Amino acid sequence: MKYLYLFPLFDERKCAHRFSYCLKKAFKKNGLTLRRCDYQGTGEANGNFSDVTLKSLQEDINSWVVEENISLIGLRFGADLALLHCAKNNKKIKNLILLQPIVNGSEYIDYLYRKQHLKNLMTGKPKAAFHNKNYQNIEGYKTNLNLINQINKLNLLKISGNCSAKNICIFQISNYKRINPSINALAHSLKIIKCNMKIQQVKLPAFWERIPVIDYGELTKKILEACSD
Fold first, then answer.
1. What global pTM score does this model have?
2. CATH number where 63 lies
């Protein structure tokens, strides 16, 4: 079985870098190889991020998923991309691990805009300095308006019924015991496809929002267990 990890986008990728490193080490310790995949214009991949769209992101994933019985692990928007891939009825995915997925894309875009607005205020740079006809600045990334509009329209509840994964595990990662209503709604919609679906809770801060010094041991252990189903 092959194991693929899909990064989140924008600053969430940077903040979650330590987690992705710890996850890869945990797999290696168990004699497994986890491939962490860079999208076009990110990490060590070629190209420009300004050209990225949902189509190009899916093309990247399609190029990596070349074997049967794959475990696909995604964090935040990486989880959305993983579910989108499975919604294309790709029978190669056995285990789908969704770590704090973004259920509603429009809420995510609003969140990114609020963060960028605060940064603009703190740096004294006007909004016009980061905007033109085709692109906007999102946390330092020259971002195609097509990608922004595509994310804005994305709703995982609308595509979940087409998912083809055999085993699906949604992780809620927070300091709250109560399951987030959007996570619950996604889990309920995924039950329609009659897969082996479960929700895991791990008490940790939102490490994709900042770079905390925390122990990821419990989280990586549960991800490994989910991949062995």
1. 0.92
2. 3.40.50.1820
User: What's the confidence (pLDDT) of residue 207?
Assistant: 95
Q: Is residue 120 part of a domain?
A: no
The pairing of beta strand 34-37 with beta strand 93-99: unpaired
Number of folded domains that form the chain = 1
Q: What stretches in the chain show pLDDT beneath 70? A: 1, 89, 124-132, 229
Q: Are 34 and 54 in contact (CB under 8 A)?
A: no
Nearest-angstrom CA–CA distance, 42 and 17: 13
Separation between Cα atoms, residue 207 and residue 212, nearest integer Å: 6
Domain assignment of residue 167, given as a range: 3-104+155-227
Joined tokens for residue 64: 């990596």
Give the position of tokens 């980061």.
130
What's the N-to-C CA distance of the chain in angstroms? Answer: 12
